[in-house]
Amino acid sequence: MNNRLAEQISYLLLRHSYVVVPQLGGFIREALPASYQHEQHLAYPPSAELHFSQELQHSDGLLEARYALLLGISLRRARLILEEEVKQLRHILIQRGQYQLPLLGTLELTGAGKINFVPYSSSKLLQGISYGLSPLSLPLLQQDMAAGSAEPLSAQSEAPEAERRNRDYIQLRIPKRAAAYAASIIILILSLIPWQQSPVTEQYFQAGFTPTPEAAQSLWGHSSLTPQSKEEAPAAPADSGLRWGSSGDGRYYVIIATERSEERLLSYYEEARHQIEEPEAIVALRSRHSATLRLAAASFDDAAAAYNYLNKLVKAHRAYSSSWVFHNK
After folding, report:
1. What is the pTM (predicted TM-score) of this model?
2. What's the chain look like in SS3?
3. CA 68, 72, 76, 82 torsion: positive or negative?
4. Edge-first strand listing for the sheet containing 98-101
5. What does the alpha-carbon distance between residue 243 and residue 253 come to, in Å, rounded to a whole number?
6. Quick one: pLDDT at residue 84?
7. What is the bridge-based pairing of β-strands 252-259 and 243-244?
8. pLDDT in tens, 131-187
9. Biggest alpha carbon distance in the chain?
10. Which position has the higher pLDDT, 297 or 176?
């Protein structure tokens, strides 16, 4: 079996937040913003994490359209070719117990019939999200000045207020010539972009992100919202009011924000609890494998209820159109 399927999944993940493979599942690219760790004085570039959800069975049409464009055939023939490649992948997965997807990771079939996904840590797809950058050490300027100065600390504390205020920020010295070159390149790129070739509408961004309520009910059935009980998750500090979920509880969470800093996550929570109809259902999750923090609008026992709630949330609040369902297993 060739690597065409894995290559096209990687191609689409660079342009979309998730891609659904019919009769297999969905690959999700969770974007993490740039952050700064005060304890170790490290600045982290933007990054991403890859996830796989076997519950994502409703085709979003991205792979079919990509195959049709790549092979120069109709959507119907492209869909037949895609189904045949997925059938071969599942056959190899059943025979060998695992299947490696280049640039993505390894699919593993468990004894219970579930598919686990182990992403490659050195994937070029993840490196592209971070622009090839690595964590940068940025020590505080105030500490360097205190170590190399011969004046006592009492004399340094008497510095002007404007100077003390400047020490609260990280300063980078960039040559003026380099800044001018960068500005010229940016202006050249902007001038070459064909801005008026295709109109961009709200439907352009919304198409293919979430299944319709009718499709979700036909696939998974219908279930009502069951807020997570307080016994399953320890409460956050009393001043924030945010509840924290338990890792690995097997529930389905509708993720509306992803951060590395708890302070920034609380700011998202303050905005969400004034917009969502049931703010008591909002819960936060802490990743067991990294410092990733996720904010969920609600949690459910099954996937059908989670996707039904996701459709309603996106229709009521367009700001949450990039929300997705996370299986906490």
Report:
1. 0.48
2. CCCHHHHHHHHHHCCCCEEEECCCEEEEEEEECCEEECCCCEEECCEEEEEEECCCCCCCCHHHHHHHHHHCCCHHHHHHHHHHHHHHHHHHHHHHCEEEECCCEEEEECCCCCEEEEECCCCHHHHHHCCCCCCEECCCHHHHHHHHCCCCHHHHCCCCHHHHHHCCCCCCCCCHHHHHHHHHHHHHHHHHCCCCCCCCCHHHHHCCCCCCHHHHHHHHCCCCCCCCCCCCCCECCCCCCCEECCCCCCCEEEEEEEECCHHHHHHHHHHHCCCCCCHHHCEEEECCCCCCEEEEEEEECCHHHHHHHHHHHHHHCHHHCCCEEEECC
3. negative
4. 98-101, 105-109, 115-119
5. 13
6. 92
7. unpaired
8. 667 778 887 776 555 555 555 544 455 556 666 666 666 777 778 888 888 888 998
9. 78
10. 297
250's CB contacts (< 8 A; 6+ apart) are: 327, 328, 329
Question: Worst-scoring range by mean pLDDT, 107-111, 152-156, 243-247?
Answer: 152-156
Query: What's the token pair of residue 161?
Result: 């207020």
Indicate the burial class of 180 (C-beta count within 10 angstroms; 0-12, 13-18, 19 or more).
Answer: exposed
Amino acid at position 179, single letter: A
| pLDDT band at residue 74 under the 50/70/90 scheme | very high
Task: Judge whether residue 326 has pLDDT over 50.
Answer: yes
Half-sphere exposure of 219 (CA within 13 A, CB side): 21
